[in-house]
Write a structure and sequence with these properties.
The structure holds two protein chains of two kinds. Chain A is α/β, with parallel strands linked by helices. Helices cover 43% and strands 14% of the residues of chain A. The chains are: A alpha/beta, B alpha/beta. Chains A and B meet through helix 4 and helix 5 of A and helix 4 and helix 6 of B.
């Protein structure tokens, strides 16, 4: 990755964080922690790696698929999709309002650009596996990206899906684990530890890479390596819950937080018009 | 169609429903490469080996992992495939209910689900495998079509209609040789109920293995009790055929529902919901009364749970009495 692209992606991720903070802050409460922690990887995929995305044709058949299985990170997806022009940026102010097209959890039938409905944890990965399998059956050379959470990895369905993907060598599947180490009720390690994640996914037949989930270059390089691995792929994103929202990083638990107008304006530097 | 004489005689079919379904899927898949079949380690119970042999890439055995099977089916549907996912009925519904609810139905995806060995048909597999609630829970999912074939001919005729329907469908399938009710003249439509015997005193509304029992009951009612019983096969539980069932209520004034299923949430409930809104009449429900399954032969279990032809006759006499 050249320095210009790295600067662009880093700045873009910062802007998207601000858009998401403003969106959640405008509603007043939301899943800020897991939205912030995936933003760098999401930026790398949407602005550098994913192929054949077309905001004017959100269901273009030959597009790469991007599934947010940790569906509560919907507001991260919406910041990206609005920025790319899938829908007007004004929609970000309608998050979770009555009749909105932007519900807290991803909904493929409400939001242009969302490839799979998610929110009941564990289910998006199985769907992503089905997409990867379907792409192979159709002879489509597409890549399926799927974000899962660390708390979500406590769901049995994650391991049913990973066993199948590993067993069938779905090398067009790249799963990204947002390993921010925290879930709603506290540290993942204290509640029901998923460690050692690298060894677990390797044992399930995956090509596993572990990277700094806030280093856009490291994430991009890992995706490049994944594409030639010949196996189903796991990229462990070592992340910080709430990364880039100082009030969230400072909070004891930022899974879901109340965000006042003062908080989001101070954080984003976006002053009252 | 003669009135109240129960002239539709049935005998055991020479074809198994599972073989008929598998063969029909092979035929359909030959013409439509979108069709894929998924199974969860029950291929030998579902006779789907013929599909695997014809289309090895399009037969996906996910192993014993029904939740993943439904999720994979949903993902395949987003890629333009028409997935048909099989398991025993409790594992095709209860075991993966949230996956069906969210990844298939709420997501608006076109997935067909086949649940085999309904109710007492599970026989020696017993209470763990004996679903008396599958249609109740599937019926509670918005827009889910719920269908129970009566015999091999109906299954065969239903396959193209189910595949052509753009949406989620649950098929509650008796696997083996059923009592044969239909011949090749059947014009099948999803959502249509079929009047098998004309009658004016009461209507027996049945489904699945209960259709043949309702026919037998209608004959007994005519021969021994002077009661003219109409018989309607409500093979599609959802959406119910409103015109046929409201007509039954208006024209015969009493209804007996007959199901190999819990009456709570099942066919009896569905018919009562419909009829009470349009033409309230006495309804008696022949079905399992809030009980779990157990091992045993179909005939034995049918007596235990009160779903024999004799139980239908008794219920019909009660229903007719309540009209007075």
């Amino acid at each position: 990755m050249d320095s210009a692209e790295k600067s662009f992606l880093t700045a873009k991720a910062r802007q998207l964080r601000d858009d998401a903070i403003e969106s959640i802050g405008t509603f007043g409460v939301g899943h800020i922690g897991g939205v912030m922690s995936v933003m760098d990887a999401l930026t790398v995929i949407y602005y550098s790696k994913a192929k054949n995305l077309d905001p004017a044709d959100p269901r273009k058949p030959d597009r790469d698929r991007i599934v947010m299985s940790k569906g509560h990170a919907g507001p991260a997806m919406y910041a990206v999709l609005a920025d790319l022009g899938y829908f007007p940026k004004e929609w970000l102010k309608t998050l979770n309002l009555n009749g909105t097209s932007l519900p807290s959890h991803c909904d493929m039938n409400k939001t242009p650009g969302i490839d799979m409905t998610a929110g009941s944890l564990g289910q998006g990965l199985s769907a992503a596996v089905g997409m990867a399998l379907g792409a192979k059956l159709n002879g489509d050379p597409i890549t399926v990206y799927c974000f899962i959470g660390d708390g979500e990895s406590q769901e049995g369905q994650i391991w049913e899906a990973s066993m199948f993907a590993g067993s069938h060598k779905l090398d067009n599947l790249i799963v990204l684990l947002d390993y921010n180490k925290m879930q709603l009720d506290g540290p993942v390690s204290a509640i029901n530890d998923i460690a050692p994640v690298e060894a677990k996914w390797e044992a399930f037949g995956f090509f596993v890479q572990s990277v700094d989930g806030h280093d856009v270059e490291a994430i991009a390089d890992a995706i490049d390596r994944a594409k030639t691995s010949g196996k189903a792929n796991m990229i462990v994103l070592n992340t910080i819950k709430g990364k880039g929202a100082s009030f969230a990083e400072a909070a004891a638990n930022c899974h879901s937080m109340t965000i006042t107008e003062d908080m989001w304006r101070k954080e984003t530097g976006r002053l009252k018009p | 169609m003669e009135e109240g004489n129960g002239e539709v005689e049935t005998m055991t079919d020479d074809r198994e429903i599972r073989q008929t379904l598998a063969a029909a899927l092979v035929k359909a898949a030959t013409e439509d490469d979108r069709i894929v079949v998924l199974d969860a380690d029950l291929m030998s119970c579902h006779a789907t080996k013929c599909f695997k042999e014809a289309f090895p890439d399009r037969f996906i055995n996910v192993g014993i992992a029904e939740q993943n099977m439904i999720g994979v089916a949903a993902g395949l549907a987003t890629m333009g495939k028409i997935p048909v996912a099989y398991s025993f009925a409790p594992f095709a519904t209860r075991r993966c209910y949230d996956q069906i609810f969210i990844s298939v139905a709420y997501s608006g995806l076109n997935v067909k689900i086949i649940g085999s060995e309904p109710g007492v048909a599970a026989e020696a597999n017993g209470g763990t495998h004996m679903p008396f609630e599958d249609m109740a829970i599937m019926r509670a999912i918005p827009h889910m079509v719920c269908f129970e074939p009566t015999d091999a001919t109906m299954m065969e005729k239903a396959v193209p209609k189910i595949l052509a329907y753009d949406g989620a469908v649950y098929v509650r399938m008796f696997r083996k040789k059923a009592e044969k009710v239909y011949d090749d003249s059947l014009q099948f439509e999803l959502g249509k109920a079929y009047r098998l015997v004309e009658g004016k005193d009461v209507t027996l509304v049945a489904s699945g293995i209960m259709v043949a029992r309702a026919l037998e009951a209608a004959k007994t009612l005519a021969d021994s009790h002077g009661v003219s019983a109409r018989v309607v096969n409500a093979c599609t539980w959802k959406p119910l055929d409103r015109d046929e069932l409201v007509s039954a209520a208006k024209e015969t004034g009493a209804i007996v529902t007959c199901e190999n299923h819990n009456v709570f949430g099942g066919l009896g409930s569905a018919v009562a919901e419909l009829v009470s809104a349009h033409c309230p009449v006495p309804i008696e429900m022949v079905g399992v009364k809030d009980e779990f399954g157990q091992v045993g032969k179909n005939a034995y279990l049918s007596e235990v749970y009160g779903i024999t032809a004799a139980d239908i006759v008794s219920a019909a006499l009660r229903a007719v009495e309540r009209k007075r």
